[in-house]
């Protein structure tokens, strides 16, 4: 394979990744719309779910969003009934955020179930070596993405 | 490899994909913040760039967003100076949207350049067969993602 063909392959994959990122964002926007949220709120809810109870400061650290943006996110999530704020029982000066589990898991899962099943059926067509290659690819991509997000915040 | 190990591999990749989608959305949110936009506006700008001149109706079709949401998106993009509306010279009853190319390409590219370089260096470590496997994986994932987005819109 010539240098040009190699470059063409890399170019096609790059374009594919760009399209994939657009498709992913539009899918999550559609899920978020169903939940009455924007896509940043939706992904923050996912992060709160995995790290609760959480302070606004910690959510800001984990997401790279400014504290001002995070306050707005928590306000909207609280208003929509997905999370609530309470005083930290271990330090009454601190406010922590918790998820209303039944509402959040029920509503998010209802909208992601069909997507999850389709992806699962697709992934099962790959053998174990290929699954490992994909896992490794996403590990590297996540490292790059998080580093670049942090750079943008500086 | 036992059934359990296979299931574990698939589970790990699934979790990885979920994290990757969160990281991607937060990265694009960070780019959008730099541009003074939200992430949906930012991705719509990308789609307008590739399909201009475009009507609001066509943008709604391509994104799956409601016409109401699309109007808000174009308003914000116009206010931020990235796009402008004009009457379609071929049909004066129609309004079409165009991009202020210099501003849009200059500002978006400035923020994506470092990310693009890091991804390129990472992708170059894969051989052609692996690149093809990744391309094919993203092709399938995009089909699923777009189908599921359309389902959510019904």
From TrEMBL, chains A, B:
SUPFAM superfamilies: Winged helix' DNA-binding domain. Keywords: DNA-binding, Transcription, Transcription regulation. Residues 6-143 form the HTH marR-type domain. SMART domains: HTH_MARR. The keyword DNA-binding applies. It holds the Pfam family MarR. It comes from the Bacteria. GO terms for molecular function: DNA binding; DNA-binding transcription factor activity. The keyword DNA-binding applies. This is MarR family transcriptional regulator.
